[in-house]
Design brief:
Blueprint (H helix, E strand, L loop, with lengths): L2 H4 L4 H12 L6 H5 L11 H10 L2 E7 L12 E5 L3 E9 L4 E5 L7 E5 H7 E10 L20 H6 L1 H17 L2 H16 L2 H50 L9 H9 L1 H7 L2 H9 L3 H11 L5 H16 L1 H27 L1 H6 L3 H53 L5 H42 L21 E8 L9 E8 L4 E6 L5 H8 L7 E6 L2 E2 L5 H6 L1 E4 L10 H5 L8 H11 L2 H6 L17 H13 L5 E5 L7 H14 L4 E5 L11 E6 L2 E7 H9 L8
Parallel strand pairs: 9-14, 9-15, 12-13, 13-14
Antiparallel strand pairs: 1-6, 2-3, 2-6, 3-4, 4-5, 7-8, 7-10, 10-11, 15-16
Helix pairs in contact: 2-4, 7-9, 8-9, 8-18, 10-15, 11-18, 12-18, 13-18, 14-17, 14-18, 15-17, 15-18, 17-18, 22-24
Membrane topology: Multi-pass membrane protein
Protein name: ABC transporter, transmembrane region:ABC transporter:Peptidase C39, bacteriocin processing
GO biological process, one term: proteolysis
Length: about 700
């Protein structure tokens, strides 16, 4: 069996934990891999550096035989065959032995012959060293600028772009060869019938053209390689930021937010090969202009005039293009938001006959967006076509001036042809730059929206030191907690204080909008209190890694969300490495087992998008199974039987009563039948606790009307 299936998170994660402890920078498994793109729940070498960074380690993967490993950088991680890995602690070349640590054996050091390790070693080694970090005692001599999420990634490929620049220098130098060849043929070969000279010149030009072809292919490959590398890293960074942002900073509209993220496509295309080539070629306009001036200085005047004309017109259109780009971005986001909302609520729209209203909004937005886009295209086309017209006009002007110079004896016919050819090469980058200016503002607006996304606070900021709590007891305490949702003047929770002992079963009652669900979201760490503190086992919740906290809480939300895929995929959403025994137990406890057993596909049945192929009760049972599959010590359940029939509810109550013994249980409910699960009742009204005590006492007070409102 693979080590990756035996060790939680894989052997590579186990090695990282060992290395981090060795360097006095311990990190929990959940902290190291939370939110990373794992393969079958295991850490892979390609994302190891991201996990290592969370432990304060800088890492690098290297190809090296055992004999050439740098002993000064030990311990290091050896990548072995069959998805295995180990930590190389020491190597003795004289005795042909090595000391290694396998993650399966905790931190036990094992001495093995080098030959045995060599037979399993893949040749890949990962070196990891602690990064130096300044503390508050070290004053900043100069304000250190944080690495920009976009330009920092682009800068990582600076060596590639250096090669692109060198290739561009050679290509533009070679571009002078063809005009000079033509000039010499007209001025020297033809008048003197020097065929030998012709063949020598032709051979030289052929060599230059061949080298030019090779360099162009290499330049294109380098540019595309750099763009591909940047694309992968930038896309990953954007998605990681989106998934990691705090819920309080969540955008109001998912559709509009999705449109802003999709705008990365325009940024990516703008920094593609055309942009890089145009920007690199632009300085060489001076080279071609200089050569033309050497041939005949009056011939360079049309190029100067043409370049100024193109750039002045392109720059004058920028203000209008910027305004239209922002308008187009906002209108596109609004239309995308309408589309997402319509698709998500299509059944509701049809049920109430509201298609006409949505269609009206869609068409109005589309018409406005089309008009805006048409104006942008018109301005962009005028810049592009104007640049082409100027380029042709410059060529005509050079020919006219050249003819007069030939008549006066100041220029040869070959010189005129060479100047004509060079003028096209000189004006081409200017025309491309003008075209890029027309596209720039669309990409700049997209970049601005992406910057806003990337600057939003995240739950797990870098350099944050979390307290590792791998086994919570389940004691929960609120100390004078106040909380309000964004853009809401009213407090959702007001000066709330209570304490729930580990293993206690509590029911939370209250009217709609009283703050019951908000309590559970605060306990999950989805939101932070405006003031006061929430303690878990006596530790402030803000000190515990959110991923480690939520792994130990089984949460059943009031509104069940499901994902496209199989029934099993949705049950193991939070525990992708769950074994079949865990899945079967969760399905049995939730009451889902009879339905699964009777279905031909069983756990492999498709649930459809948002679980639309399941009934409401079945979706709720899946949510319960998803909460229980990891056997958490804390259970938060918001109306867990709201969509279940009476029989299913009774079965679930009996199962939960047995299962929850020794676990902390919080149940938000309006159903009196679920109160049998609780030993204590907390009544909430308008964000305040109006009653709290043993179940019998609170129930009696409710019956007698002795429990009032918060007001």
């Amino acid at each position: 069996m693979s080590v990756f299936s035996e060790t939680p998170g894989g052997a590579l994660l186990g090695c990282l934990l060992i290395i981090s402890r060795f360097h006095d920078s311990p990190v929990s498994a959940e902290t190291a891999i939370a939110g990373l793109p794992l393969v079958n729940g295991t850490l892979t070498p390609s994302v190891f550096h991201r996990a290592a960074k969370r432990a304060g380690l800088a890492s690098r993967i290297s190809q090296s035989p055992l004999e050439q490993l740098n002993e000064n950088l030990l311990p290091a991680i050896l990548i072995l065959k069959d998805d295995k890995a180990c930590v190389l602690n020491r190597i003795d070349h004289e005795q042909q032995t090595a000391e290694v640590i396998y993650p399966e054996l905790s931190e036990t050091v094992v001495a093995l012959p080098l030959s045995e390790i060599q037979s399993k070693y893949t040749g890949q080694v990962i070196y990891a060293r602690p990064e130096f970090r300044f503390d508050s005692r070290a004053p900043e001599i100069k304000k250190v600028r944080d690495r920009h999420w976009f330009w920092g990634v682009i800068a990582e490929n600076r060596r590639l772009y250096r090669d692109v620049l060198l290739a561009a220098v050679m290509i533009n130098c070679f571009a002078v060869a063809m005009p000079l060849f033509v000039m010499n043929v007209y001025d020297r070969v033809v008048p003197n019938h020097a065929t030998d000279t012709l063949w020598v010149l032709a051979a030289g030009v052929f060599i230059v053209l061949s080298a030019d072809l090779i360099l162009r292919l290499m330049r294109s490959w380098f540019v595309d390689l750099g763009a591909s590398r940047a694309d992968v890293k930038l896309s990953s960074a954007i998605m990681e930021r989106v998934l990691g942002m705090k819920m309080i900073n969540r955008p109001a509209s998912a559709g509009s937010f999705a449109a802003n993220i999709q705008s990365f496509e325009s940024v990516r295309s703008f920094i593609g090969s055309l942009t890089v080539v145009a920007l690199v070629d632009l300085p060489f306009v001076l080279l071609f202009a200089t050569v033309i001036a050497i041939i005949g200085w009056p011939l360079v005047l049309p190029i100067i005039a043409g370049a100024l004309l193109v750039l002045i017109y392109a720059l004058s259109a920028q203000a209008k293009m910027h305004s239209l780009s922002e308008t187009s971005m906002r209108a596109g986001a609004m239309r995308n938001s309408t589309l997402i909302e319509s698709l998500s609520n299509l059944e509701t729209l049809k049920s109430f006959g509201a298609e006409s209203r949505i269609q009206t909004i869609w068409e109005k937005t589309t018409i406005f967006l089309t008009r805006t886009a048409a104006q942008m295209r018109l301005i962009s086309a005028s810049i592009t076509n104007g640049a082409q017209w100027t380029q042709h006009t410059v060529a005509v002007a050079i020919i006219i001036i050249g003819v007069y110079m030939i008549i006066e004896g100041n220029l040869t016919q070959g010189g005129l042809i060479a100047a004509y050819l060079l003028s096209s090469r000189a004006m081409a980058p200017i025309s491309q730059a003008a075209g890029l200016l027309a596209q720039y503002h669309h990409s700049a607006t997209a970049m601005q929206s992406l910057n806003e996304i990337m600057e939003r606070p995240v739950e797990r900021p870098e350099n944050k030191n979390w307290i590792s709590r791998p086994a919570l007891r389940g004691e929960i305490e609120f100390k004078r907690v106040n909380f309000r949702y964004p853009d809401d003047e009213r407090l959702a929770i007001t000066d709330m204080s209570f304490k729930i002992r580990a293993g206690e079963h509590v029911a939370i009652l209250g009217r709609n909008g009283s703050g019951k669900t908000t309590l559970e979201k605060l306990i999950l760490g989805l939101y932070e209190p405006e003031s006061g503190a929430i303690l878990m086992d006596g530790v402030d919740l803000r000190q515990i890694d959110p991923s480690e906290l939520r792994r130990q809480i089984g949460y059943v939300p009031q509104d069940v969300s499901m994902f496209f895929g199989t029934l099993k995929d949705n049950i193991i959403t939070a525990c992708p490495r769950a074994e079949d025994q865990q899945i079967l137990r969760a399905a049995t406890l939730s009451g889902l087992a009879p339905f699964i057993n009777s279905h031909p596909a069983g756990f492999d049945m498709q649930v459809g998008e948002r679980g639309q192929l399941l009934s409401g009760g079945q979706r709720q049972s899946v949510a319960i199974a998803r909460a229980l599959v990891n056997d958490p010590p804390i259970l938060l359940m918001d109306e867990p039987t709201g969509s279940l029939d009476h029989t299913s509810e009774e079965t679930f109550k009996q199962n939960l009563s047995r299962y929850s013994r020794g676990k902390t249980l919080l149940v938000v409910t309006h159903r009196s039948s679920l109160l049998t699960l609780a030993d204590r009742i907390i009544v909430v009204d308008a964000g305040k606790i109006v009653a709290d005590g043993p179940k019998a006492e609170v129930m009696e007070a409710l019956k007698q009307g002795r429990v009032g409102s918060a007001n």
